[in-house]
Amino acid sequence: MSLKDKLNKDKLPKHVAIIMDGNGRWAKKHGSTRIYGHKNGVKSVRETVEAAAELQIPFLTLYAFSTENWNRPRTEINALMSLLVGSLNKETDTLIKNNVRLLAIGDLKSLPRKVQKELNEAIETTKNNSGLSLVLALSYSSRWEIVHAIKQIGIDISNKKIDLQNFNEDMFVSYLTTATIPDPELLIRTSGEYRVSNFLLWQIAYTELYFTSKFWPEFRKEDFYQALYDFQGRERRFGKISEQIN
Ligand code: FPP
Question: Of ligand 1's atoms, which has the minimum distance to the CA of residue 193?
Fold first, then answer.
């Protein structure tokens, strides 16, 4: 029996975020190049998107390229960008067929023009889809996002568009790149690393964290169900006590 059948469909998270890690180490284990690892990572992306869409999870965010990833060797950056362009090009029809809406967060202007073009086209073509919202974090880091938000807030204060006296958390959220996206309820990280690597730091304040030793190219639907099953066994108290929750 698949773990999928054991999942309580009324208690699924509304937003799952994933730090897809371990492509390089997986490739090394198979005596191949890091790029081979990234190519195989695309298969896991496809499986996970399909699984999330089938379960009618509203939001799935994938950390596909961090601000810090710009410091990798040029050849690897180029390969990742080509892979992105190729995947967007190839998969847009599948996204439409499966009613998936594509969104992107991050410093998108820093992406190569070709990536921006392909990304914008896919976002535009899928914008009216009402199923899963697939959010790609590209050239994204939380610290970048927070500083970017603060700069905008500064401008709006000086334009008298906002009043600092009444400024609150909800208003701050409206300046983040995730303004229209609910906070993740579950964050998965693959490859056996236990850190959050500058990902959605504000948004994961109350997120459940799940770590698996599987490398990202090994991650399959069943692994996704396992993470969801684990999530459903957690008691989320949000600072309250157990008796207040149950
Ligand atoms: C982390 O593994 C993975 C990345 C930095 C890139 C993720 C990209 C993909 C899975 C392919 C393209 C994505 C989409 C959405 C089509 P790593 O390179 O850090 O692995 P390591 O820690 O073992 O070196």
Answer: 22
Query: Does residue 237 lie in a domain region?
Result: no
Give the residue numbers spanning the domain of 198: 13-141+183-231
Q: What is the CATH number of the domain that holds 214?
A: 3.40.1180.10
Which pLDDT tens digit goes with each residue over 110-165?
A: 999 999 999 999 999 999 999 999 999 999 999 999 999 999 999 999 999 999 99
pTM over 0.90: yes
Give catalytic residue positions: 21, 69
Cα-based angle 70, 52, 121 (whole degrees, multiple of 5): 55
Cβ atoms 142, 201 nearer than 8 A: yes
Could you state, in chain order, the average pLDDT of each consecutive group of 10 residues for the chain (246 residues)? 95 98 98 98 97 98 98 98 96 95 98 97 97 98 98 96 94 98 98 98 98 98 98 93 89
Q: Is residue 236 part of a domain?
A: no
Residue of the CA atom closest to atom 1 of ligand 1:
21
Work out the number of other CB atoms within 10 angstroms of the CB of residue 222.
12
For ligand 1, whether the C-beta of 87 sits within 6 Å is yes
Helix 74-97 to helix 34-54 angle (10° resolution) is 20
Residue 133: Cβ-neighbour burial (10 angstroms; 0-12, 13-18, 19+): buried
Total domains present in the chain: 1
Rounded CA-CA distance 115/240 in Å is: 45
